[in-house]
């Protein structure tokens, strides 16, 4: 048992001591001086740290024909001794029948270019163009899922504060962990994914999110909420996580509202409230049935901004048991030793919700497409 506990600790980690909320320096602390930073090419470099971390580039495509797709590279390092890279693709079944097309393929001979801006592996590349405003994702890693997509930024990309990063540790000058998110919330998408059944035309809209968890993921966050909401005119994005009790169950929320090619508001005064839930008997987590998302702040010229997306989530698209592939006895011990029981709930209501936006004295309401995730970890 002691050997198994130590092995699990190296991989997923035991629970940490109670350090208190002062042991996290939230990105919100940066916003008093720098509300947000516009992304340049320099901000898009891969970090590839040589300590335990998970670095991702995630692309969401919402095609004009109604297709919803995720493409993602996960680059992870465990304790500086074992590095892996995986390419994930998911074509969502929006009919509610759960017939998603999901592939997760381990990558071989993965590497970065000299500038750390592009990623490559055998039969797979993610290339940033010279202008720094478009990514080309191409993969023949899996013959049953051929990917050829281009995401072109149509509005400024941003990170909250000066670097989009919250830092963890009792000594702010020497943090032992971090969490970083950046966003391209409004992209034009071209290209396709070809499976053995058909070719999916993915011309439409997209979102790109690079992220870095510079510590064991379940030590950084116990719960997550994510929203990607797109209307013909507006984009609303929100990412919220709640730390474990070891860091005071602190909420960190970053989000923005954009119109066409400009940022209306980007900041941290946002909330994601589960206004309805039901107990999931398979996971014992309170699966949300309705969520209210709220943003509040100011435009660059000082006008007050408030916005909300509120309503039922409908039938869930998917529920992902993150440890589903782990043998049952190890999963049970991991849950008791490390307190981890990660499940991801994904939603995209068939009944359209609306973005209600107020800028100064002007009120706007516009229906749109919503994709959201709620994750319970520990």
UniProtKB/TrEMBL annotation:
One GO cellular component term noted in the UniProt record for this chain: Golgi apparatus
Location in the cell: Cytoplasm; Endoplasmic reticulum membrane; Golgi apparatus, cis-Golgi network membrane; Nucleus
UniProt KW keywords: Cytoplasm, Endoplasmic reticulum, Golgi apparatus, Lipid transport, Membrane, Nucleus, Transport
Domain Svf1-like N-terminal: 54-213
Annotated Pfam families: Svf1, Svf1_C
Domain (Svf1-like C-terminal) ranges: 215-378
Membrane topology term: Peripheral membrane protein
Top-level taxon: Eukaryota
GO BP: lipid transport; response to oxidative stress
Protein purpose: Ceramide-binding protein that may transfer ceramides from the endoplasmic reticulum membrane to the cis-Golgi network membrane, and is thereby required for the biosynthesis of complex sphingolipids.
Protein family (similarity comment): Belongs to the SVF1 family.
Full protein name: Ceramide-binding protein SVF1
